[in-house]
Amino acid sequence: MLKGKTILVGITGSVAAYKAVDLIRRLRDAGATVKAIMTDKSKNFITPLSVSLACGAPVAADMFEEPFSHIDGPAQADVFVVAPATANSIGKFAGGIADDLLSTSFLVFRGGFVLAPAMNWRMYEHPVVKKNLASLLSQGAVLVEPQRGTLACGEEGVGKMAGVDAIIEAIIAVVTPKDLSGEHILITAGPTREPIDPVRFFSNRSSGKMGYAFARVARRRGAVVTLVSGPTAISAPEGVDVVRVETASEMYSAVMGRIDTASIAVMTAAVSDFCVAEQRSEKADKADIALLKLDRTPDILAAVGALSRRPFTVGFAAETGARIERAERKLISKGADMIVFNDVLAEGAGFETDTNVVTIITRNADATCQKEYLPLSHKEAVASAIIDSIIARRA
Ligand code: CTP
Hints:
Elements: E1 6-11, H1 19-29, E2 33-38, H2 48-55, H3 69-76, E3 79-85, H4 87-95, H5 101-108, E4 112-117, H6 121-125, H7 127-138, E5 142-143, E6 147-150, E7 156-160, H8 164-175, E8 184-189, E9 194-197, E10 200-202, H9 209-220, E11 224-229, E12 241-244, H10 248-256, E13 264-267, E14 274-276, E15 294-296, H11 300-305, E16 312-319, H12 324-333, E17 338-343, E18 355-363, E19 369-378, H13 379-394
Parallel strand pairs: 1-2, 1-3, 3-4, 4-5, 8-11, 8-13, 11-12, 13-16, 16-17
Antiparallel strand pairs: 6-7, 9-10, 14-15, 17-18, 18-19
Helix pairs in contact: 1-2, 1-8, 3-5, 4-7, 9-13
The chain binds cytidine-5'-triphosphate.
Cytidine-5'-triphosphate is lined by residues 188, 248, 267, 269, 271, 273, 297, 299-301, 315-318, 330.
């Protein structure tokens, strides 16, 4: 998503400056060209050599060595990110003070501007810093909120620079066109967990990666996103409303309680098909295994597909082998507008991988099925292609 983009990274004088090297490397790994500007104070924490090695290019020279460096750097950049951003640099940006390469470059730059503050918690809470930040945000700057944690001074509070993942997410969001603004996308993700007794449950191998990738991509493209998630180890995507559930019936209630406002529903969850009919309050004896009675769980996708006023509804069919006709049948039987078929046994596809290989199946006006094959791609790229297909279908 950052391929071909140029990112200007400003580094100011905070102990978090060392994290800028990781940020720059990760941006380059994602395909971006990176140029860096360092303030004099930042050079107390990290050397220009480390930064230029990470960039694969020299750190921008000061205006007095290269008179137009404050014009050339910003003119070439798609995004300008200042990480870490000290209270001093934020104050200068907000006040229009232009006394070094970073602050003059800010006044020249006209694209997406991202700030990742880092400072003592008292400084971050100070009304002057708050006012300066509010002023920059009202002009379109994007804030990557600092985290709570133990700060360089040893105190605990909010002021630790956000993680590199969150900063990269903000940068990607800035360069992504907002073609889903005005849409509410409801996504289910992960497995469900059906308790047998207080210590045991049955579940499946779904990691939730596909649904979480979908949520991140939809959010970046401007949608309001609700993610109803079974148990997973993945952290909540920035700006997404995550509703955590455990069982299929909890997932059903969470979805049906929120479906009215959804314009698109995407069911990536691997919902357990069975639950234990009578839950036990005590640990079952293993001899009782033969007495276990199972019930069917509610079919959430079919319930959404049967609504008289329903969102554009997308299901996922994870099959073992090239059983695409099973997926086609699910498109019809569950009343969905689109089914995404994947063979979980195929190379690079399946539950725990970061990539997937899918076929998007939709219905033509004459009731035949249309199939669009997407080759092996990262799950975020798969999500993006599915969203493109949804937009095309609804047009
Ligand atoms: N699904 C659902 N609720 C269920 C079962 C499945 O919402 N109780 C949804 C899944 O989220 C997915 C689609 O239905 O989008 C297909 O899931 P899959 O497990 O392939 O279908 P099943 O109906 O369970 O069929 P089977 O297990 O027999 O293949």
